[in-house]
């Protein structure tokens, strides 16, 4: 590949990985008991998908592709720790769970898409509050100082926004299910 093509491919990898890493991590965490083990497995999975990224077809389902690596890495981890009490399921049960977990990931993707659309519908003040709370990680006391509101008002507004977003996401999911059967 030419340097420009390599650059574009590397950039694509990073974009896809950053978009999907939380889902890959959640998937791994659902199969092991320890956050630390999940973190270690995730690092190994990232190394594997990077090393084999030339096998990924652009436009394909990156998450599904990466979850296959995650699944087999969990199996590898479990075989190493087979005598440990930290193992939740045997490998046969894990093999049977693949279709169920794939379906759950599709549902999670649909909910994330709906949430993104619903966030765009919020008024500016609500979006700012959600951004401060979740993107910047500020606690309600910090938000109250920044927005010149009482902490009680911040809790009340966040609760109202959460309810709004939940209703919006549920409507979007129902609408999508209705349209696509």
Structural write-up:
The chain is mainly α. The chain folds into 2 domains: 88 residues, RNA polymerase sigma factor, region 2, helix turn helix motif (Rna Polymerase Sigma Factor, Chain: A); 79 residues, Arc Repressor Mutant, subunit A (Orthogonal Bundle), CATH 1.10.10.10. It is 80% helix and 0% strand. Helix 4 packs across helix 7 and helix 6 packs across helix 7. The radius of gyration is 20 Å and the shape is globular. The model has no long low-confidence stretch (mean pLDDT 82).
Secondary-structure map with pairings?
Layout lengths: L2 H27 L5 H17 L10 H19 L10 H31 L2 H12 L4 H8 L3 H30 L1
Helix pairs in contact: 1-2, 1-3, 2-3, 3-4, 4-7, 6-7
Main features:
mainly alpha; 181 residues; 7 helices; Rna Polymerase Sigma Factor, Chain: A; 80% helix; globular
Q: What is the radius of gyration?
A: 20 Å
Strand residues, percent? under 5%
Looking at the overall shape, the CATH architecture of the largest domain is: Orthogonal Bundle
The major beta sheet can be summarized as: none
CATH class of the largest domain: Mainly Alpha
Looking at this structure, what is the CATH superfamily of the largest domain? RNA polymerase sigma factor, region 2, helix turn helix motif
Chain-averaged pLDDT: 82
* Tally of distinct domains: 2
The portion of residues assigned to helices is: over 70%
The fold-level CATH name of the largest domain is Rna Polymerase Sigma Factor, Chain: A
Number of helical segments with 4 or more residues: 7
The end-to-end distance, rounded to whole angstroms, is 43 Å
Instruction: Give start-end ranges of low-pLDDT stretches.
Output: none
Structural class: mainly alpha
């Amino acid at each position: 590949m030419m340097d420009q093509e390599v650059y574009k491919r590397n950039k694509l990898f990073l974009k896809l990985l950053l978009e999907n890493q939380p889902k890959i991590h959640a998937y791994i965490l659902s199969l092991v008991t320890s956050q630390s083990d999940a973190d270690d497995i995730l690092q190994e999975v990232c190394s594997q998908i990077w090393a084999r990224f030339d096998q990924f077809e652009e436009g394909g389902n990156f998450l599904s592709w990466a979850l296959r690596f995650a699944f087999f890495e969990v199996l590898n981890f479990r075989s190493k720790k087979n005598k440990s009490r930290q193992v939740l399921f045997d490998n046969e049960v894990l093999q049977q769970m693949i279709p169920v977990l794939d379906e759950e990931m599709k549902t999670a993707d649909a909910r994330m898409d709906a949430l993104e659309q619903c966030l765009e519908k919020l008024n500016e003040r609500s979006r700012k509050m959600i951004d401060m709370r979740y993107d910047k990680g500020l606690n309600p006391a910090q938000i109250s100082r920044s927005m010149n509101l009482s902490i009680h008002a911040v809790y009340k507004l966040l609760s109202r926004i959460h309810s709004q977003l939940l209703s919006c996401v549920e409507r979007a999911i129902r609408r999508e299910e209705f349209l696509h059967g």
